[in-house]
Amino acid sequence: MKKLLLIDGNAILHRAYHSLPPFKTAKGETTNAIYGFLKMFFEITKKEKPDYVAIAWDRAAPTFRHEQFADYKATRAAPPDDLYPQLPRLKEVLDAFNIKMLEKDGYEADDIIGTLAHSAEKHDEIITLILTGDRDALQLASSKTHIIAPIKGVSSVFIFTPHTVKEKTGVRPDQIIDYKALCGDHSDNIPGVDGIGPKQAAELLNKYDNLDNVYAHIPDLTPGQRRKLEEGKESAYMSQKIATIELNSPIDTDIRRLTVGPGDYGKISKLFTELEFKTMKGKIDELKKIVPPQIDNEDSELGQQSMF
Questions:
Q1: How far is CA 106 from CA 12, 186, 265, in A?
Q2: Which of 122, 171, 174, 187 has the most CB atoms less than 10 A away?
Q3: What's the rounded Cα separation, in Å, for the pair 164 and 173?
Q4: How far is 297 from 168, CA to CA, in rounded Å?
């Protein structure tokens, strides 16, 4: 089996930043988010040994969700001033490792990840791992797609499979979208139905399976539930739309181009020196086992093996 590792860049960058103190280089460059991101990346690739890797990034441009709901994510606090200035340097390091990075105006990292995972599902030879702190991705969990969620710092994770999604949320992965349609999602400012909480949303879906069927059985509900659902019907279906990860984003879905490495270790060593990552620089030989180095052979087919 081949492994495809997909990383929600923005989610892991935030996790890294908030997990480490804001240390700086002697020249005053803040590097904690860069260090934490790379630490998690190296740990997960060392453990899972993926054959293909892609990091998806959000872009500043509004997405199709903002067109449907102007207040989408409007309640999120502004990022710390010293967080996103670290992003160009992080991308510089990742580029030296020859890790593919993807972003698209109008779409979120979730949509790029969802599209690639959906494409990979069509191939029996691939297992997909999604590294993210965003629970929206739980809707993508399947027997062939698992969600890796950091739960402590940048080193401890929890693996979401269809079974563990049901254990943690009370609903199946394919019900996550309708679950958010009913109870909303405060982190993304998805309203859901006013007065319907997570427990009640799970109970309704366990009984009626999906949002359409919940509304088809409104006469069977309590007066309070009927009132809430009738008054919140427009909000529920709008929330359902914006909670849905796009599985057909306009991106290249050829998984073969996401082969890991080869890394330019001359440039990597220079960058680690500039960033004062002495520990990482001391482990370059170990990193070469995770991301293979470039070799001086024009005829080499390193990383070009077909998965089909």
A1: 21, 22, 34
A2: 171
A3: 10
A4: 50
The radius of gyration of the chain's CA atoms, rounded to the nearest angstrom, is 21
Phi/psi of residue 24, nearest 5 degrees: -130, 160
Rounded distance between C-alpha atoms, residue 75 and residue 240, angstroms: 19
Dist. CA 88–CA 297, nearest whole Å: 30
What pLDDT, on a 0 to 100 scale, did the predictor assign at position 2?
95
Sign of CA dihedral 196, 200, 204, 210: positive
Q: Minimal CA–CA distance to 291: which of 87, 5, 58, 32?
A: 5
Cis amide linkage into residue 262, ω under 30° from 0: yes
Interatomic CA distance for residues 138 and 163, integer angstroms: 11
- What distance in Å separates the CA atoms of residue 290 and residue 112, rounded to the nearest whole number? 24
Average pLDDT over residues 26-33: 96
Whether pLDDT at 247 is above 50: yes
Q: 260 Cβ partners below 8 Å, 6+ apart?
A: 45, 50, 51, 52, 53, 98, 99, 290, 291, 292, 303
Number of H helices, E strands in the chain: 14, 6
Rounded to whole angstroms, the Cα distance separating 4 from 67 reads 32
- Mean pLDDT calculated for residue range 172-184: 97
Instruction: Give residue 72's pLDDT band: very low, low, confident or very high (50, 70, 90).
Output: confident
pTM for the whole structure:
0.91
Express each pLDDT in 195-233 by its tens digit.
999 999 999 999 999 999 999 999 999 999 999 999 999
